[in-house]
Amino acid sequence: MMNISSLEQQLGLDHENQHPPVDQWHPELSGDMDMVIRRDGSWWHEGVQIKREKLVRLFASILRKEGDEYFLLTPVEKWRIRVEDRPLLIVMIECVDNNIRAITNTGDVVTVGQKHPLLMSELDGVMVPEINIRADLYARFSRNAFYDLSEMAREEKDGRFFVNSGGGQYFLS
After folding, report:
1. 8 Å CB contact between 103 and 59
2. The sheet that has 118-123: what strands, in order across it?
3. Distance (Å, whole) CA 117 – CA 168
4. Residue range 127-150, pLDDT digits in tens
C-alpha cells in the first residue's frame, strides 16, 4: 500500500501549496491508469471515488497537461488519466484587499490577476468562469463560488458586468 508521507518526501513536498517540479520530469509513458477526474471535481480510481482529501491533493500536485491529455507523473513514471472537463474546481472565493482569491478543491489558492486571469469558457452551452491555476491546469467555478463571484460583480460597462482584481477588469459575460 502507498505511504503518502513517504511519497510526499520523495517528491519534495513539505507544505500544502508547494508542488513538485513536474515540468522538469520527462519519463516514458507507463500506460493508462483507470482514473478519472469528473466534472464535479471528484477523483475516481477503478470506479471508486477517492475520498481521502490528502491523497487527492497529492495526485493533483503531480498532475500535468500535455496537449489535450492529462498525466500523473513521478520522476520515473507517467500515467495517462481521463479528465471529463477541467481537472480542478474552485470551491470558494473571497475578496481580500480588493483582490479576489480563489481556493480549489485540491487546496490551491490563487489571486485573480495577470498571472491568474479570470476567463470565460463554454460548458454545456453556458458561459462559465475559470482560472488557470498553474501550468495549463484550469479550474472551473463551482456553482456556489460562481454565485459568490456574481455578487461581487456590481459594476457594469457596455451592458456587461465585471469584477476588479489584481489591477484588471474581468467580465462575467
Report:
1. no
2. 109-111, 99-104, 88-96, 137-141, 126-134, 118-123
3. 8
4. 999 999 999 999 999 999 999 999
Locate 72 and state its grid cell. Answer: 500523473
Predicted confidence (pLDDT) per residue in 9-46, tens digit: 555 544 445 789 999 999 999 999 999 999 999 999 99
Contacts of 95 (CB under 8 A, 6+ apart): 101, 152
> Taking the model in full, what pTM does it have?
0.85
Pairing type for strands 31-37 and 43-45 reads antiparallel
The contacts of residue 52 (CB under 8 Å, 6+ apart) are none
Cell, residue 104: 480549489
Instruction: Match 471535481 to its residue by C-alpha cell.
Output: 41
Single-letter code of the amino acid located at 165? S
The span from the CA of 84 to the CA of 41, in Å, is 9
Question: What count of residues does the chain have?
Answer: 173
User: Under a CB-based contact definition with an 8 Å cutoff, are residues 74 and 128 in contact?
Assistant: no
Distance CA 137, CA 100 (A): 19
The three grid cell numbers given for residue 3, joined into one nine-digit string: 505511504
